[in-house]
Amino acid sequence: MPPSDAHAGTTGLGQPGATGQIAVAAPPERVYALVTDLRVLAELGEEVRAHRWVGRPGAAVVGARFRGSNRRGARRWRTTARVTAADPGRCFAFEVSSGPLPVSVWRYEIRAAADGGCLVVESTWDRRPRWFRGLTALATGVRERTAVNDHNIARTLSRLKERAER
């Protein structure tokens, strides 16, 4: 399978609702390995408690699926994700759903730097139907999802940097 484009899985979605970036003093391949390890990705995130691959191939390849267990305070919810881009050292993206309803798209874009490190850009697009947003706000306790995602992305990227630079 040819490598995916850095924007694969997000083409046609417009500008992300929330995004952040951080310089990491680690090679792009190391950062990619961390964000595609579902156990590590759950450790880095703010609301994610666990991820697990569903079925085969059980790895970060386009089309692979994984389930997420999420928590914010006493509220808990589950989601399913499908990998839409998996280009080692460059890009990992997935779309999240709740049952048949789209929830979001997440992308980690990794850009090699001249010093051997990289710049990591984490972005998300809210894909929930308007009528579904109120229900998800009740389920998650989050009314201002974009602001919360901006905060969560900053925290996730900070943890990713710390982990990758160890």
From TrEMBL:
Identify the stretch(es) annotated as Disordered: 1-20
Q: Which Gene3D superfamilies match?
A: 3.30.530.20
Q: Which CDD domains match?
A: SRPBCC
Q: Which domain of life is it from?
A: Bacteria
Q: Which residues cross the membrane?
A: none
Which named protein is this? SRPBCC family protein
- State the organism named in the record: Streptomyces buecherae
Source taxonomy = Bacteria, Bacillati, Actinomycetota, Actinomycetes, Kitasatosporales
